[in-house]
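Feature request, filed as a ticket because there's no other form

It would be nice if the structure record came with a short human-readable summary line next to the tokens. Right now we just get the raw output. Example of a typical job, pasted below so the devs can see what we mean:
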Amino acid sequence: MPGPLQVSALTAGDTLLSHFWDLASLEEDKREHAAKALVEELVKSQKELEDEQSSEGSDEEEEEERDQAGGGKGSSVDTALRRCSPLMIYAFKRLCRGLGSSRQGARQGFALAITCLLGATECIGPAEAVTAIEGVLEPVGKGSELRDALLGRIFGYAAVARSGRPLPADLAASMADGLVAAAQKKSFLREAAGTVLLELCQRCDDATLASLLAGPLSPWLTAPPEDATPEALLLALRLWPRLPPAAAAACPLLPAGCKAKLPAALFADPAAAAGSKAVAAAAAAFFSRDHLAALLPVLRATTQAHPRLHTVWPTLLALLIPGFSADKEQRGAGGVRDARPSGPALEAFWSTVVDGDLVQSSHERKYLAFTLFLLLLPHLGPEHIPLVFTPAFLRCLALNLKKHDSHLHAGAKKCMERIAAYSERAAPEVRIAVALALQRHGGGSLDKYAKAAQKSSNGGAAAVSADGSAGDAGASAAAKQAEGLQAYVQQLQDAFLKAGQAAAEAAASEGGEGGASAGAAQQLQWAIEQLCGVLKQAAAPAEAKQAVLQFLAVHALFSVDAAAAKKSKDASVKAAARCVDIPLPQRQLCAARLISLADSLDKQQQQQHAPARKQQGQKQEAAQQQQAAQQPQQEYIAGVATYVGRLRQSGAAELATAAEGEAAAAEAAEAAASSLEGALSRLQARLVAGSAVAREQQRLRALAHLLRLLLLHSLADPASADASLAADLAAVYSVAIEGETAPQQAQQGVTGGSGGSEESEDDEMVEAGGAAEGDEGAPSPPHWHDTLMDVLLSLLARNAAPLPSAPLRDAVEHVFRAFADDLTATGMQDMLRVLAKPLESGAGDEEGDVYASSEEEEEEEEGGAVSEEEEEEEEEEGDGSGSDGEDEEEEEAAAAKPAAGKQGGDAGSDEDGDEGGSGSDEDGMSDEAMFRMDAKLASYFATLKEGKGRGAARAARDELINFKMRVAGLLEAFCKRVPGSPQLPAAVAPLLSGLAGASRPGGHQALAERLSGLISNRVCASKAEAAGAGLAGDVLEQPLRRTLYLASRSTDKRLAGAAGAAYVFLQRAAAASPDAACRAKGADSARAALADFFTKKKSRLQRPLLEGLLRRVPALLPASLPEALKQAAAGRNEYLRHGAFELLGAALKSHPAEAGAALAASSPAAAAAVQAAAAGQFSKAARQMDALKVACQVVEALGKAGTAGAAGGKAKGGPSWAEVGSAVAAAADSAAGNPKLSAALQRLEGLLEQLPAGAAAAAAADAAAKTPGGGKPKLKAASTPSGKAEGGNQQKLAAAPAGKSAAKTPAGKAAGKAEGGRAPGSGEKRSGGKLAGVKAGSAKKLKV
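Raw output as currently delivered:
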């Protein structure tokens, strides 16, 4: 063809080129306008060419010329465009090249132009267009060049597919091969290739589609889920209605065995397929848990499109929610939709995919979970809220909402804002469901959103002024809210009845062998949970609460005869006629929620009344008691119990909680219920009558509440019914409240601890009742509080499952607190034995392993404080004292371990219960009382092992731990209620035994922490002085020895700390005892503690413990300070001597007067300690300075006490104070080079001179100087203000030890100073006979 027929960029014209530039614009309208203009111009050019071609020869000549051109690079492209005009050829080639351009919107614009051009002209067919695209965009090279070529081809294939031109089978197969190849080369192109491949398949006929399924698409659709891609799942779902049965069966991505024929317009027109049963069946099969679990790898891989949503998800949601429109949801143009998902399918999808995988994985997958939540939210009804607002999802949402620096914070905030907006537009029942879900599972971060949702559900009722007043609008809104809640409650009850009927029909259809279907059971559970959540709302009216509680009570306990119920005159019984029978598991769920809900409503009511009671301030007590009596207590539990009683008496209800074959259990439950109702009626009659004593009202309410809960437990769980509990509680009520005297009632004292009175009382009762019973040795009945404790402990030991145990435990604690003032020693021992019970059988014999190490090397360790050289010196100087100390330790350990057996060992094992001993807790108990206590404990532990928790040993151990925790709560309540009880000191040793068992390897750390806190923070923080006022004799001897042993030998820090706190508590109690023997035992124990600390190498006592002991118990100072003074003067090593001085300093600082008196009584030991401080037997100067400071304090305390012991003579057991003064002076002179040490010694010297002993020594020196024959010069004190100090110098001179030179004595030094010379050993300069550089108070003028 001649050259002028060819067109290039230089000859195309500016108008045509401008269209190409506009095709790459980012503005969609501009691209569309440019594409239309370009197509019009090219069509015009092509039409002109066709008009000019008039002869066939020209066409033949052109074809011959193209054939002669041969197979060049562009020959295939030129051949495909041989019928096009030169301008068309240039433009189409440029359009194909533009598909591979990454400039702005070039790919979109150029592909749009190709689509329009193919639809407007016939000169280029789909096959020629594909040939031209593949010829221009050859996938060569690598990197960005290869990426642009492949992406351009995908856009080109899409343009051809969207042109509307028919596609031959071979061309469709060729395009499919190209798309599959592009997806395999670059994974990020897989989604785009899959989308175009889907459009290609949708435009093919069935025959062509079958060929594609057998050819290029076969590897995608037949791959297992582990190797499949999200694009393969997209193809399988969208082509599912057109797939042949064989192809659908061979595809692992589709559910197996699903033969439903789906409508062809399932995904094209979702609204039209919304009511199709085939679609519902296919969705149920696809969204089964097993199939979704198999598809998890495929769904997990969709996050490769993050942050954009993969195209497969709208298809999945369209199958899950018939009528789902993805485009409108993503653009946010839609509000609440009428389309609703299926409950089971939604639950399976959310629990398996979202909760089970996405929210537990990476940030990208959590963001995908947030996106899916936003898409599903507008389609949720009230029954779907609990399925989507799950704890796992809300926990993830709250966590990312709380962390502002989290990558998902913006997504979480968007979700909460969408929830708030959705709650404003949704129906009232949906708003209530959302508020309940957020309150139940959201946590603190979602509280404000839950309140906002609740406020929107209130309809403005929350707009109340601060003073509590509300206007007409608020009242009307509140009324509207109440009506909405009641309407929602009615809907939930209807849904419950419908689901219960469906469950009954399902059970009947299965021949009675199976239960309700999964859907009916799920619907029942949802209705129960929603009812409970609605009633917890503050705006719920009391009538609705009572009605729902009665509704749950009927379905939880009874099977109602509708005909008999309708004949009843009681409206509440008549309302039970519409109730249906439900399976036993659902009855148990109703019973559990009934008890929990009623208990929570009672507590909520009490919290509402609590602020009103606090605001009353200092009003009169009578008015408070009257208001407390008028306020309803336990209203809802009482209402449920009363309603249950009316149903039982009506004859229209029959107990239906017993399983098949347990008729005996049902009869026992009925008998127990009758007994409990009888006891409850007596309590209720007295409570209604009223009483002026608030304590009695509290006890009555506590007992009545416990009886009502026992009534509900007995009916709901017939296996746990026990008629004896009601009889025991009735007996307690008769004696404790009504004041009746039980037959042969033992009148035990409340304080306990003494056994003689109990034995005498037993003898008296035997004599009184011998004729009646015919047995002179009949055992006496227990105290009424012991009976109460038996009931309470047996209830705490019970495993209440499947019923909630927390309300029953709270009721037990309330009863215990109400009667805590009357607790006997037997009841206390019951609790202590439970707490000291070993967790493992046979563990009580190995108790010592917890307290001290079994290795012999630890005997010689001193905690790093004593060096090897010091130990060698101690061995040389001690002359066997170490062996004596070890013998003393062995004796103490031998004495302490039997004490452990008496205090904790008996509590630790039942076998030791019959052994005799001198333990304070068991001295006063008769054999009958001991056997009765062992029998009670055996029954408690049998309840744990043989009750509902029987089975593995691990389960029994867990039950025992829980039992110990609950009993520890009782003892803690007792400490709060009766902090000055004399029984608390006796409880220390058994508690420490329980703590030791829980702290041993293999114990239970949570229990150990609880017991440690109970000992340290409750028992030891109680009023020890008040508790000690009731102690007598040697009650505390064994506990003191036991606690001291544990504090000194335990290797467990927690146990040692608790034992130390308990030891201080016991010493406080002993010091407050009126019995001198008890106080003496405390003093002996304190001396033993100090001796253990200072002399025993295995001792682990800490000095802060001893300091705290002397600070808290000043009465121990006379017994403790002598040992401390002795150790300060002659301790076995430097570390202990320094510790003794620190202990003395702490005692002097906390109680100076008492410590001074104790020091005055031990003047020789004090003198020895002061002399040792001045001697400086310390390797570190800081330690000597500390010792000197304490020595100064000792001397000051002695001076204030007014005596220093033997004034000048040699005292027995220590040096005289004159010798001490000489030693201090000598030390001061030798320390002249150390200013700080010298100043401390000079201060000590001055304090010694001020003692009464100093004046006496001066007078003795003057008398010796006046005796005739004295050849030495006489020193006379000048009549100056420093005469007192001079007298002190004369004292030093007179007391100078023999053998010392005059120059080395203080007097000799002074004489040397007076002569203007330098005293030997002195570093001071003298001038003119005057003292230079000496501080005021120490300079002296000497006159010869």
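Something like this underneath would help us a lot:
The two ends are 149 Å apart (CA to CA).
The mean pLDDT is 76.
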